[in-house]
Amino acid sequence: MNYTNNMNLPTAFYKAVARDYQYKPHRYSVTSLEKGALEQYLLRTYDGTLTQDVSDMLWLVFGTAVHKVLEDNAEDGTAEQKIEYPFTIEDGNDKFDVTISGVFDVYEKKGVIEDYKTVSVYKCLNDSWDDYKEQLTGYAYLMRKTKGEEIHRGRIIAFIKDWSKADMRRTYNYPLNQVYVVEFDITDEMMDAWFEKMKRKILVLERAFKDSVAPEPCTAEERWERPKTYAVKKKKEDLKAMKLFKTLEEAEEYSKDGAYQGNVIEIRPAVSPKCEDY
After folding, report:
1. pTM > 0.85: yes or no
2. What is the 3-state secondary structure (H, E, C) of 169-229?
3. Strand, helix or coil at 7?
4. CA-CA distances (angstroms) from residue 58 to 8, 32, 186?
5. Phi then psi for 254, rounded to 5 degrees?
6. Interatomic CA distance for residues 117 and 62, integer angstroms
7. How far, in Å, CA of 87 to CA of 145, rounded?
8. Which residue has the higher pLDDT, 63 or 26?
9. pLDDT digit string (tens) for 188-220?
10. Are 160 and 175 in contact (CB under 8 A)?
C-alpha cells in the first residue's frame, strides 16, 4: 500500500497510520479471513500499486490509541497474545502448507478471551456483533490448537466513538454508556465450524494464487449489501420515507387506500457500502 498526505498533516499522524505491512504468501490472519476471497486476492495481488490518503484513516488513529493505552497499563503477560497455527490442506493431489495467525487483546481470566474494539453507535443499535464474535471464536480455536487452552467464553469490550448523552436520553435502545460489553459462549462446535469455513476460504485463495485466476465475486454479506427496498413517501421530494417494504406489492397495498392513498413509491436499489465507500 502506498500512502499520500494531500492535506499535509503532521508527520506524527502520517507515521501513526501509514503501515509498512506486506502480505506474506500462505499466511492469513484471523481478521483478514473475515474478508471475501476475491477482496483478499485483489489486495494481495495489487498491494504495491494501491494508494490511500492518510486523511481517510482517522478511524485507525482511534483504534490504535485505545489499544496502546490499555496495553501499556495491562498486567504482565495478559495483553496482546500472539498465536500462529501452521497446518496442511490436502485437496486431491495438491498440498498447501499454510499458517493462520491472530492477535487478541486480553487473556486475564482462564477460559475467557477478550478483545477491544472502537465502534460507532450504529453497531450497538443494530446489535451486529457476528463479525467480532467470529474473530474471537477463531482466536479460541488457535489457542486450543497451539497452547492447549480451553476457552469457552468471549467478551467484546467496545468503545463507542460517537456516543452522545443527549441521544441516549431520547433514543430507544441507545447504549447507556460509552463502553459497551458483549459476552457470549464459545462452543467446541462453533470453533470447529469456524476452522472448516476458514479452510474452505484458504483453499480457494491458494488455488487462485497457484492458477493466477481470481476467485468468484464476493457474496452479498461480504459486500455488506443492503437489498432493494420500496419506500413509501408522502411527496416525491421528501427525503425520509414513512415506511420501507421488501416488495412492490406490499408498498402498493399499503398505499392504495385510506389515509395513505396517493402516496409516492420510490424504488431504492440494492447497494453494497463496502464496495462503494470503503
Report:
1. no
2. HHCCCCCCCCEEEEEEECCHHHHHHHHHHHHHHHHHHHHHHHHCCCCCCCCCCCCCCECCE
3. coil
4. 14, 20, 32
5. -65, -30
6. 10
7. 10
8. 26
9. 999 999 999 999 999 999 999 999 999 998 888
10. yes
